[in-house]
Amino acid sequence: MESGQSADRVLAAYFKLNRKHGSKDRKLIRETLFALFRWWGWARKLPLEGDALWHGQLALCAALEQHLWEDIRAAWAMEAGWQQLALPGFDTPSATALQLSQLLAPVQFHAADLVPDWFWPLLPPLDDAEREALLTSLCKRPPIWARAQGMARDQAVSDLRALGIEASAAPYFSDALSLGSKSINLNEITLYTAGKLEIQDLSSQVIGQVCDPKPGESWWDACAGAGGKSLQLSSLMANRATSANAGQIVASDIRALALEELGKRARRAGFANISVARWRSDALPVDAGSFDGVLVDAPCSCTGTWRRNPDMRWLDSATAVTDKPELQLDILRRASAAVRKGGVLVYATCSLAEAENRAVAEAFLAAHPEFVPEEFTHPFSGERCTMATVWPQQANSDGMFVARFRRLD
């Protein structure tokens, strides 16, 4: 919190300097650190001071998450002066907040403490039950989601289970898998090193499904990053192709290193139909009007990824959201010029904020009458819509937003 750096980065630097820690130590340290961020809204309210406060925060978070190292949990509680205090495990945000308020009176704990105050006003309207469900999801780590690539999913599940991995088929997409919640060394898995398995959150997989690329089409992934969605688009095309012409993907980003990583992943998967075109200025890095489909997965506040990155709740401020819409609209406007007449434009973010999502999409449509909204089916709710928020509680995933437009002939 003092440096403003992500917890992942700080932890990686710590482990690099402290190589004495074995795998069990690393697991304990990592899980403890991220638990502190998940429950920081309550942990910072404990009626303790000095070292007792620090140990109390550790004990509280370990109890809420039911960590298995009971001797360490007991030692932390003792140092906090809580030898006789039975801290609760997590039930629901409201029920657990009530339990803590009774145990640690006169301090009052509330479910809303678990996210910063600026968060709620930036979301679409939610009723009490929806807020409770969202908070519950933010307090629990999602599973590791993946895709089978260039092989049958059932075979991938069988191969992974033979390695002791808790793999199962996801009910939503024909290539999606859950790999459980335990840490996995991917480099020890042949399916991964051979490009047959890609780690991709289920909410992120929604975006490629909404794009719905057809074999033989040309698609531009305008904000590709390290290429997860470019690989998904290529895989979807290949799965549906009946000839050698699966289609073409061009991936762009402003970061050269990200595009290098994309190239490695594409070669590992054997996708020769992915090429790169780096953004070097405001000018399009591709030809205008030349693509059947364009995906704009825009830079955003990433509030939809708070389950995996709980430190971001407390490191960011409202400006993480309010600073983005102007940039997002500008990128969407410029990228839209690459869509041919009759082609598809898809706008996506991993944010839950209205200002970055529906507001940007509606502002774009208002300024570009040559594009019209196009319906698709929300994969988790089954509703027909032209814009959809994927909430973390719907399918045990991250959060995303996606909108689909069609350019008029």
Describe the protein's architecture and organization.
With 409 residues, the chain is an alpha/beta fold. The chain folds into three domains: 7-114, no CATH class; 145-199, Sun protein, domain 3 (Alpha-Beta Plaits), CATH 3.30.70; 202-407, Vaccinia Virus protein VP39 (Rossmann fold). The chain is built from 17 helices and 14 strands. Helix 2 crosses helix 4, helix 4 (50-64) runs antiparallel to helix 5 (70-79) and helix 15 (325-336) crosses helix 16. The longest helix is centred in the N-terminal third of the chain and has 16 residues, at 23-38.
In short:
This protein is an alpha/beta fold. It has 17 helices and 14 strands. The chain has three domains: 7-114, no CATH class; 145-199, Sun protein, domain 3 (Alpha-Beta Plaits); 202-407, Vaccinia Virus protein VP39 (Rossmann fold, 3-Layer(aba) Sandwich).
